[in-house]
Amino acid sequence: MITLPLSDIVAYLLLAAPWTLLLSAIAFLGGGIGALLLLLWRYAQPALGGTFARLYTELLQGTPLLLQLFLVFFGLPLLGVDVSPVFAAGIALTLYSTAFLAEIWRGCVDATPRGQWDASASLGMNFLQQMWDVILPQALRIAIPPTVGFLVQLVKSTALASIVGFVELTKAGQIVANATFRSFVVYACVGLIYFVICYPLTLCARTLERKLARSR
Amino acid sequence: MGYQLDFSVLAEYFGLLLKGVGVTLGLTAIAATLGIALSIGGAATARSPLNWVRALVALYVELIRNTPFIVQLFFVFFGLPSLGLKMSALQAAVLAMTINLTAYSIEIVRAGIEAVAPGQREAGLALGIGPVSVFFWVILPQAIANVYPALVSQIVITMLESAVVSQIAVTDLTHVADFIQSRNYRTFETYFVVALVYLVLSICLRWLFARAGSRLFAGRAR
Fold it and tell me: Which residues 42-71 of chain A have a CB within 8 Å of chain B?
């Protein structure tokens, strides 16, 4: 057992917090790109892309993220790819957030009036022009609040990376708790740091939502 | 030649997997029952005229909703014993899942209550029904019907998140998977099959709740 003053415990945890943020950022960017591709496919080929997107979402939202993480972490090596914990966590969280963002954004695209598609088609625009210049800019406006809300869920989800051994905030908490035997204080601090990251995002999502509701 | 997948080795663990399913569903059922009951109380309290009561409920909801479930679980299981609150892993899992689900459902139930037309309450009071009875017999049934699908989703999410309780050695479905793969070294196959079991469970849960819902709220004009 090691005796550490509270300030040292907090300092150590704060050292690990950037890894939580980095992992969240990777998963958000990767998921954003994946979701955008899935969205385009879904509307370009409603039959094939739509079915794939539905299956993909069902699969990823109907199974625990922990098992998705295990499958990537233990599955990729079978394909001959050597994975580090951070790489596996990055991939798993990207696949996970792709499913959620694609679902959120689909709702936003569906919310743009049908006439927008018809009007842009009658102007001779092709599918990508319609999407990029007409539909997405309108969908983006209503997509921002729920996307920020999802970001909170994503930051919290990165905590599972600790289970495959990636030293982010939660894993750092486990290490300090095991060394100092002060689990109560350590996990309270870990929770508070997550709160400090997530709560501003929650507030931001709520404010944006209210603004959007008022502008309609 | 690479790795050969072999799922047949899992057959002998069928009974063990079934036990894991039982624990996962049992945990979910207890947490859902307690969580929904508590959240009705919480949602009613969140409309209290007293400022500090509202603030307390809001603090609880925000604290839980903005921290990861695994940290809540570790706090309950490893942290609370230092306050003299010793509990088994199973009790800690139930407690953490209930605390978590309650926070989310308070928000859901509250939204449901807010969506009930104020005239319903006024009509109930005008008929001479007491305010408590009006809440339980007039407002609440309509509020729950309003948000029933959201509550069901939240219960399914709780079931999926409960996979994490395997980390404190609760013998749930994921823990069974950990055990099996430590025996047969078929890590990928084991987790793959168990992930599919979770998928089937969440589809079945949603289907069952949807059927129950269409019966429970059959007379309601939606």
Answer: 58-59, 62-68, 70-71
